[in-house]
From TrEMBL:
Record key words, sorted: ATP-binding, Nucleotide-binding, Transport
GO annotation, biological process: D-alanine transmembrane transport; L-alanine transport; L-isoleucine import across plasma membrane; L-valine import across plasma membrane
Gene3D superfamilies registered for this protein in UniProt: P-loop containing nucleotide triphosphate hydrolases
SMART domains the UniProt entry points to: AAA
Highest classification ranks of the organism: Bacteria, Bacillati, Bacillota, Bacilli, Bacillales
InterPro entries: AAA+_ATPase (IPR003593), ABC_AA/LPS_Transport (IPR051120), ABC_transporter-like_ATP-bd (IPR003439), BCA_ABC_TP_C (IPR032823), P-loop_NTPase (IPR027417)
PROSITE patterns for this protein: ABC_TRANSPORTER_2
Protein name stated in the entry: ABC transporter
GO cellular component annotations of the record: plasma membrane
GO MF assignments: ATP binding; ATP hydrolysis activity; L-isoleucine transmembrane transporter activity; L-phenylalanine transmembrane transporter activity; L-valine transmembrane transporter activity
Domain ABC transporter: from-to ranges: 4-252
Keyword RNA-binding: no
């Protein structure tokens, strides 16, 4: 059953067509990769799904209902969250405070409560603090809860960003190059962690990643973009042997070698 459907998505920036007629269906509970060379339109696709860009054409359906045109915060409350290719943490805030930001989309107290620091506000903030610490424990970095996010090593920042995304209580999490900048040991750990997220939290995971070993070992299904168009989809084995994919990554000459 498809939990998320992108149907005929097109996005233009002046004369540049970043995505053209892209249709991708994501099965509930799956780990799906969206891959392609640099400039293929992968992050633009993520940005449309999460409300940072509105498609010029096409439709986005979450459990059969349109989310096209919604703001990122509205899409987050409906169960879709993400990380970014370039880590976007609040660097001067502690790790715990960064995760607490993710819980705020689920808080119910209004502006007056915030201004007057009511009992309800204090109770919600304490609940958010406890939940945030539990998420830091879950991703294995509770020991740096009170350290400034900007002072953390790169690998820990990646885990912190995932913890903040999990704080929104998502159904679907989009991971934009989760292993970027990691050494081989960290990449293996991240691969196992992503697999654990699916198993333990019943998440649907969509990832953009250039590490083909990670993609082929982790993904159940793969969609390939090139110059903004989808050129292939299939299982890892099907994608590995697809001439169009080989040409996109290695050049036309690679497909002509006997």
């Amino acid at each position: 059953m498809a939990i998320l459907e992108a149907v005929g998505l097109t996005k233009r920036f002046g004369g540049l067509v970043a995505n053209q007629d892209v249709t991708i269906k994501i099965e509930k509970g799956s780990i799906t990769a969206v891959i392609g060379p640099n400039g293929a339109g992968k992050t633009t696709f993520f940005n449309m799904i999460t409300g940072f860009y509105e498609p010029d054409e096409g439709e986005i359906l979450l459990a059969g209902k349109s989310i096209k045109g919604l703001r990122p915060d509205q899409i987050a409350t409906r169960g879709i969250t993400r990380t970014f290719q370039n880590i976007r943490l609040f660097k001067q805030m502690t790790a715990l405070e960064n995760v607490m930001v993710g819980t705020h989309s689920r808080l119910s107290a209004g502006l007056l409560g915030i201004l007057f620091n009511t009992k309800r506000i204090r109770e919600e903030e304490e609940k958010a603090r406890v939940e945030a610490y539990q998420l830091l424990e879950y991703v294995g970095i509770e020991h740096i809860a009170n350290e400034a996010a900007g002072s953390l090593p790169y690998g820990l920042q990646r885990r912190l960003e995932i913890a903040r995304a999990l704080a929104t209580n998502p159904q679907i999490i989009l991971l934009d190059e989760p292993a970027a900048g990691m050494n081989p040991r960290e990449t293996v750990e991240m691969t196992e962690f992503i697999r654990l997220l699916k198993k333990e939290l019943d998440l649907t995971i969509i990832l953009i990643e250039h590490d083909m070993k990670l993609v082929m070992g982790l993904s159940e299904y793969i969609h390939v973009l090139d110059y903004g168009r989808k050129i292939a989809e299939g299982t890892p084995e099907q994608i590995r042997n697809n001439p169009s994919v080989i040409e996109a990554y290695l050049g036309k000459s690679a497909t002509e070698v006997s």
